[in-house]
Write a structure and sequence with these properties.
Strand content: 25-35%
CATH topology of the largest domain: Alpha-Beta Plaits
Helix content: 10-25%
CATH class of the largest domain: Alpha Beta
Order of helices and strands: EHEEHEEEHEEEHHE
Distance between the termini: 24 Å
Length: 270
């Protein structure tokens, strides 16, 4: 299903006799080939659908709020499916987790209207990116943080990050997804911030939508600013250029986390 550029997705078709289910899912992406189901590869969607099939004794199609790449983690991925009512939310959460591998968990389950769709109804998403900024790598964060051993100019990075707020064409900070885009490359960032806790820099981005590898590309550029290999003016020029060839390489996948997906309240009511 596709929407015209700049327009919302059309309502999806659903069977009103079925029960809608909304899952909030956390996973460590290290050993997954991303979210989306792939033949003969271990994916988060695939593991969840296997667990659903065990409970319902039939194939259940699960819809995610969006794809995450190989190695990307999630604290608040959202998924939805419609099926005959089997358990209440608490029992269903417990049953699913009993049938899932240890690196993926349903952290919340809610019974909702069958009209709810995790992807089409999403209003905003928030991503977090973690950078370990110290000379020696911590072996316990090798799969969860990007290690940058050189000093970073945090004030310059914050100034560049502030330039991303509002509505922009982010064509310079997206990669070719390998499939046709349906909404163009204009997005609105409501949050673009960098904080720190000890030697860890924490990037947060909240938007009405993200392009393929957009957050990783933004972080890659901001770190270049922090290393003094690019000025804030250069960063702003690249944003205005709307050309991926102008931008620096992206940050690695393992520092990225999908932390939250928000929906209009009326879309998650029963």
């Amino acid at each position: 299903m596709k929407a015209p550029p700049g327009q919302p997705f059309p309502p999806h078709r659903y069977d009103a006799s079925l029960q809608g289910h909304k899952l909030t899912v956390a996973y460590r992406g290290t050993d997954f080939f991303g979210w989306q189901r792939q033949a003969e590869k271990r994916t988060v969607q695939g593991c969840l659908e296997e667990a659903l099939a065990k409970l319902w004794k039939q194939k259940i199609d699960l819809q995610g709020s969006g794809r995450t790449d190989t190695g990307v983690h999630a604290l608040g991925q959202v998924a939805s499916f419609n099926a005959p009512r089997l358990h209440n939310a608490v029992v269903l959460q417990r049953a699913l987790n009993a049938n899932l591998p240890r690196d993926v968990r349903v952290v919340k389950c809610r019974l909702v209207s069958p009209a709810f769709h995790a992807r089409f109804d999403a209003q905003e998403k928030t991503y977090r990116y973690l950078v370990l900024n110290q000379m020696v790598h911590d072996p316990f964060t090798v799969d969860t943080h990007w290690h940058v051993p050189l000093p970073l100019d945090l004030p310059a990075m914050r100034k560049a990050a502030a330039a991303l707020l509002g509505e922009h064409d982010f064509a310079s900070f997206t990669s070719n997804p390998g499939y046709e885009r349906s909404r163009g490359t204009i997005r609105t960032l409501r949050r673009s911030s960098i904080t720190h806790s000890g030697h860890v820099l924490i990037f947060h981005f909240t938007s009405n939508g993200f392009l393929y590898r957009m957050v990783r590309n933004l972080v890659g550029g901001l770190v270049k600013v922090g290393l003094g290999k690019m000025t804030v003016h250069d960063f702003e020029r690249i944003l205005r250029a709307c050309s991926r060839s102008e931008a620096p390489p992206n940050a690695p996948a393992h520092g990225l986390y999908l932390t939250d997906v928000t929906y209009p309240p009326q879309r998650v009511s029963k």
